Amino acid sequence: MPWEGMKTKNPTHKHQTWAGRAGDFKVILLVVASTIVIGMLVYSQHVTDRLLQKQREIVDLYARSYEYIARDNTSGGDYSFLFDEVIRTIDFPIILTDAANTPHYWRNIEIDTVKLAPMEQVEFVTMLMKQMDERNTPIKIALNDSLILNYVHYGESDLIVQLRWLPFIEISLAAIFIFSAYIGFSYIKRTEQSNIWVGMSKETAHQLGTPLSSLMGWVELLRNDAGSNPKLESTISEMSNDVERLNKVAERFSKIGSQPDLRRENVREVISSVTAYFSRRLPRSGRTVDIDFENEEEVYADVNRELFEWVLENLMKNAVDAMDGTSGRISFHLSQSGSHAIIDVTDSGKGIDPRLHKDVFRPGYSTKKRGWGLGLSLSKRIIEEYHRGKLYVKKSALGEGTTFRIRLKT
User: Fold this and answer.
1) Spatial separation of the C-alpha atoms in residues 245 and 272, rounded to whole Å
2) Which residues of the chain register pLDDT less than 50?
3) CATH architecture, domain defined by 260-410
4) Helix or strand or coil: residue 333?
5) Which of 132, 234, 325, 349 would suit a FRET pair with 394, their CA atoms being 20 to 30 Å apart?
6) Torsion 91-92-93-97 (CA) sign
7) Distance CA 230, CA 30 (A)
8) Are 295 and 343 in contact (CB under 8 A)?
9) At how many degrees (to 10) do helices 158-226 and 12-72 cross?
């Protein structure tokens, strides 16, 4: 069978184990990153709380100083000297009010004294004072429990405000760095994968070239010696077709990595050609597989015929491998939707778990006991990178078969 040449023992559980390890590694990275972020938030909050506590102790100290002075001057002496001189080293907003919470003195508060009248300044300070009280409880200055002289209202210093924002800034910078690193590593990974694809394809084409040339020569010698033997001529003709097919496969590999030449092709005719070739060879697999082409509508699209045929063959081989019994069906449906050609390839195989619809295109992923897990990945690459189209699982479920959809620009 033409697709049995590049298979090797490759247990399914290995692919699943590698996928599981990759998933576990992502979970571990997420847990570590979350732990670091939470640790940063907790530590920053701890430092901020300690600074707030120190700040409150300073305000409480000055409040106690006012009380001490007040006890020696119960007539309500002038506290402006203490407020203006003693606490000038304080770097956070502070407001001194009377017992009715009317502001009398304030520091470290920016007020436009040109535009605002004195009463408007008091109203502005009162508004700020209420905002401060939402975060910090004011400290009262009292001679005793029943005689309150003043209140000290205070806000947060610039350092504390910066500390509150620091974790979010660090997290944002870390997120930007991680995102940039992810994009960079993804690009490097894609480049490396591309180089592997190209290198493997070029080497395969090179290795196939010499024996193919030799086989073509031998076929010509056999044709010359066949004489008028119809049976031998028929056999040589089939051999020649298979050699030509191998030569086409070598040409396909040689095109990987190069910009393919896209030409306007009759998609219906291309599909018919591929299905006809496989229909003649499927009986050799020991299975009875019916291939249906449900639409005879002529649809044209810009494709590279050799590579596009390769995709169709890979989808058909995948469909045959997905069939558990000795019989099955593969259906093609061609239609045009707007500026796109739509090709649906449906099989009667065992289906794909909906959770794995994207995984089937990942290089190395396979549910078969034999195979490299490269066919669908290569097909997706040919359609999406070379033809600027789309290849995806339209619908599939376990026990219900699978429909792959190809979308090409017309």
Assistant:
1) 16
2) 1-20, 75-76
3) 2-Layer Sandwich (3.30)
4) strand
5) 325
6) negative
7) 70
8) no
9) 170
The amino acid that residue 134 corresponds to is: E
Strands 263-266 and 147-154, by their bridges, are unpaired
Give pLDDT, residue 17.
Answer: 45
Q: In terms of Cα–Cα distance, which of 70, 92, 90 is closest to 79? A: 70
Q: What is the rounded distance in angstroms from the CA atom of residue 187 to the CA atom of residue 191?
A: 6
Question: Locate tokens 């200055």: which residue?
Answer: 141
Phi/psi at 57 (5° precision) = -65, -40
Tokens of 17: 């184990």
Sign of CA dihedral 347, 2, 245, 383: positive
Candidates 307, 334, 331; CA nearest to 319 is 331
Q: What is the chain's mean pLDDT, rounded?
A: 77
pLDDT at 2: 39
Which residues, other chains included, contact 131 with Cβ-Cβ below 8 Å and sequence gap of 6+? 155
Q: How far apart are CA 44 and CA 38, in angstroms?
A: 10
Quick one: the chain helix, strand, coil %, rounded to 5?
55, 20, 25
pLDDT in tens, 149-165: 888 888 887 777 777 78
Measured from the Cβ of residue 132, the count of other Cβ atoms closer than 10 Å reads 19
Residue 5: predicted pLDDT: 37
What is the identity of the amino acid at 226? Answer: A
Domain segments of the chain as ranges? 42-156, 260-410
DSSP letter for each residue of 245-304: HHHHHHHHHHHTTS----EEEEHHHHHHHHHHHHHHHGGGGT-EEEEEE------EEEE-
The hierarchical CATH code for the domain 42-156 is 3.30.450
pLDDT, residue 258, reads 65
405/410 Cα distance (integer angstroms): 15
- Condensed to tens digits (0 to 9), the pLDDT of residues 245-282 reads 787 777 767 766 667 788 899 999 999 988 888 887 67
For the chain, the distance separating the N- and C-terminal CA atoms, rounded to the nearest angstrom, is 34
Cβ atoms 167, 102 nearer than 8 A: no
